[in-house]
Structure formats: C-alpha cells, structure tokens
C-alpha cells in the first residue's frame, strides 16, 4: 500500500508514530512499576494516535485505493466514546492511590462497546454476506459521520466535567486534611486538564465553523492542534510521576460527622462536644508542642495528639475556627514568622530560611499564606514596618 507523503500527511505521521512509541513506553513503565496511571495514560495515547489516523491516511491517499479504503472503512480507528471514560479513570488513578476499576464502572464502556458491535455488523454485512458496499454505498467513512462525531464530543465534555469535579473534590479534601496542600495539588494535573479543555473547545469551534466533519481540507488545522495538545499530554504525563498522599475515601468521611457527636472509640454512648473546650485543647497543643513547625503535619497527627478521631478534629477546626485545616496551620506558621520579624531575625537570615523554620515547605507556599493572612507580601510587610 502506498503512502503519499505531503506536508499534511507527513506532519500527522510524526505525531502518530511518536504516539505509538510513547504508548509502548508508558505501558512498559506501568507494567514494571505497577503504576495504574501510566497504564491508563498509555491507553489514552493509543486512542489519540488512532484518532488522527483516518485523516493522516486520508491525506496519504488511502481512501483512493480499494484495499486500503476497506481498511479505513471497516477498522474503527476513532473510538470517540472510549476516550472520555479513559480520561476520567486516568484522573482518578492519579489522585487516588487506592483506585481500581470495579464492576459498577464497566457501564462507562457500554457506549464504546455498542459502537464496536455496530462496526462489526457493518463489516459482516458488507464483506461476508452481501459482498458489496451496503452501509458504505455513499463511499463515506462512518467514523466521520456527524452524529458519531457529535456523540463523541458530548461524551468527552461529560467525562471532562466529571474529571474536573473529581479534582475539585480532591483539592477541597487536601486543604482539609494536610498542612502542605499547595505542594500536592499537582500542577501537572491542572495543566493536563487544561489541555483537555482546549481540545474540547477546539472541537466545538470547528463544529461551528465546519460541521461537515468528513471534509478533509477544512479539518487539517484542527487535527494538527489536537496532535500538538495530545503530544504535550503524552510527554508531560510520561515525565511527571504523581503519587497522591491523601487516602481519598477515608478523607471524605471527615466532613460527614455532625459536630455535636463525639464517638468514644467504637464503644460507649456519644457525648456532646464542648466546642470552646476542644478549641482550647487544639490551640494548646499547637502552641506548646509547636506542631505547626512540622512541614508534613496532617490532620491525623493532630488527632493522635488529642486522642480523638480525625473527623472530629476536622469538624472542630472548620466550625470552631471557620478555617480549613491547611489555612489553620498556616496561620500559626505566619504568626511565628511575624514573631521572628519582631525579633529582627530577618536581618540575620533569609525569608526562606525563616519560612522553613516555621514549617512552610516552599517559598511560594509561604508567600501565599503570608499574604492571605496579612494582606501583604512579606517584602511589603517589612517595608511598612521599616
């Protein structure tokens, strides 16, 4: 089979080949390191490479030859109803280290399975029963039919929304259970989701400007932009190894217990919590034990000190101090920094050194927390005090 090299087919071929290479590398990485996220990303990259294949091969002249045209017609290259679920499960595997697909998750794959069954019926009818084009009598690839392309776009938008919502839940929980939330919000995941949003916006834009999806000449720029974005996701995903430190399911329960209930272990009657008393206890251990100086302080650490369930500590901090756990601890760290300023320690040490001594784990986190607490950056605050 010939492949007519041109600027369009050649450019898409580069992305296609690189996609297959990285698909293999991610598959190998996931298998060797038991990394579920890499396995899901490998499948996503493979689907993206297959997604651009009809246009790459179309520009290379495959629709003009009978043998290659049959490959294009009867091989379902564009699995549009599968890309969305893969994006969703990849996001979950990144943010939830205990994630594993369950039986109830299999329904997400039913639309893709139904379309695959439909393509199989088309192949059997045309090639094995009628021995002529019946479904393909119009000579147009059904993968590029408007109804299927629209269904694929809707599917991707739905699963992108679910992925963004899942990340929003993770982000909320991070601020509730650890004091170093800024460092585990994973800039890579934000950028990956942003890239997917851009892909979706591009598809919507091209649907509006050119609804005839099987017109090759008018869709090249979309497929080129798609290739660049999926290549970015591929390279960045391969280079960034994300390991979540939050037990997502357990953390969700921290927000579910009413404040007035305090369980005594697993036994005994529930007691009414004296909110002011528990607030005093938390303040006392934060000040006397200086727990905030631990850059890896978690809600569980404080709960163990108080000998009470983590979910109770979360409720007391939320309702008693009107803060999430991350901001609550950073407030103490900021107060410690201000105390050091008063003693003139900023003349002997750098701001970063002082921040690290007080429990901050990075300069950016320190600057954000300080400004949130005082309304000024550390530099501006010191200028005003001069």
Automatic annotation (TrEMBL):
InterPro entries: Homeodomain-like_sf, HTH_AraC, Tscrpt_reg_AraC-type_HTH. GO terms for molecular function: DNA-binding transcription factor activity; sequence-specific DNA binding. Residues 280-384 form the HTH araC/xylS-type domain. The keyword Hydrolase does not apply. The chain crosses the membrane at residues 6-27, 39-59, 71-91, 112-134, 146-164, 185-208, 220-239. Keywords: DNA-binding, Membrane, Transcription, Transcription regulation, Transmembrane, Transmembrane helix. The keyword Transferase does not apply. It holds the Pfam family HTH_18. This is Helix-turn-helix domain-containing protein AraC type. It comes from Haliscomenobacter hydrossis (strain ATCC 27775 / DSM 1100 / LMG 10767 / O). The lineage of its organism: Bacteria, Pseudomonadati, Bacteroidota, Saprospiria, Saprospirales.
């Amino acid at each position: 089979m010939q492949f007519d090299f041109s600027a369009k087919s050649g450019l898409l071929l580069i992305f296609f080949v690189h996609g297959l290479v990285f698909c293999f590398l991610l598959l190998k990485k996931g298998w060797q390191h038991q990394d579920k996220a890499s396995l899901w990303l490998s499948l996503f990259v493979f689907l993206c490479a297959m997604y651009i294949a009809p246009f790459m091969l179309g520009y290379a002249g495959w629709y003009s030859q009978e043998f290659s045209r049959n490959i294009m017609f009867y091989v379902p290259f564009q699995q549009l109803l599968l890309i969305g679920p893969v994006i969703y499960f990849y996001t979950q595997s990144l943010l939830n280290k205990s994630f594993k697909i369950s039986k109830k998750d299999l329904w997400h794959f039913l639309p893709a399975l139904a379309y695959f069954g439909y393509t199989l019926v088309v192949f059997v009818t045309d090639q094995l029963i009628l021995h002529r084009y019946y479904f393909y009598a119009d000579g147009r690839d059904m993968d590029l039919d408007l109804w299927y392309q629209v269904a694929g776009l809707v599917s991707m938008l739905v699963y992108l929304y679910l992925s963004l919502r899942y990340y929003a839940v993770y982000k909320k929980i991070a601020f509730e259970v650890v004091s170093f939330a800024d460092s585990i919000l994973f800039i890579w995941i934000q950028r990956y989701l942003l890239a997917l949003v851009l892909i979706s916006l591009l598809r919507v834009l091209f649907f509006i400007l050119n609804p005839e999806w099987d017109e090759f000449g008018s869709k090249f720029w979309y497929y080129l932009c798609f290739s660049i974005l999926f290549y970015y996701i591929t390279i960045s995903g391969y280079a960034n190894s994300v390991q979540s430190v939050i037990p997502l399911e357990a953390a969700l329960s921290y927000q579910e217990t009413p404040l007035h209930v305090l369980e005594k272990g697993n036994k005994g009657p529930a007691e009414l919590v004296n909110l002011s008393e528990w607030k005093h206890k938390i303040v006392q251990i934060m000040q006397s034990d200086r727990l905030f100086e631990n850059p890896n302080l978690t809600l569980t650490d404080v709960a163990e000190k108080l000998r009470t369930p983590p979910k109770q500590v979360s409720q007391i901090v939320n309702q008693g101090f009107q803060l999430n756990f991350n901001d609550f601890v950073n407030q103490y760290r900021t107060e410690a920094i201000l105390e050091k300023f008063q003693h003139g320690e900023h003349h002997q040490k750098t701001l970063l050194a002082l921040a690290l001594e007080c429990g901050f784990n990075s300069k950016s986190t320190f600057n954000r927390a300080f400004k949130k607490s005082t309304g000024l950056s550390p530099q501006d605050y010191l200028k005003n005090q001069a």
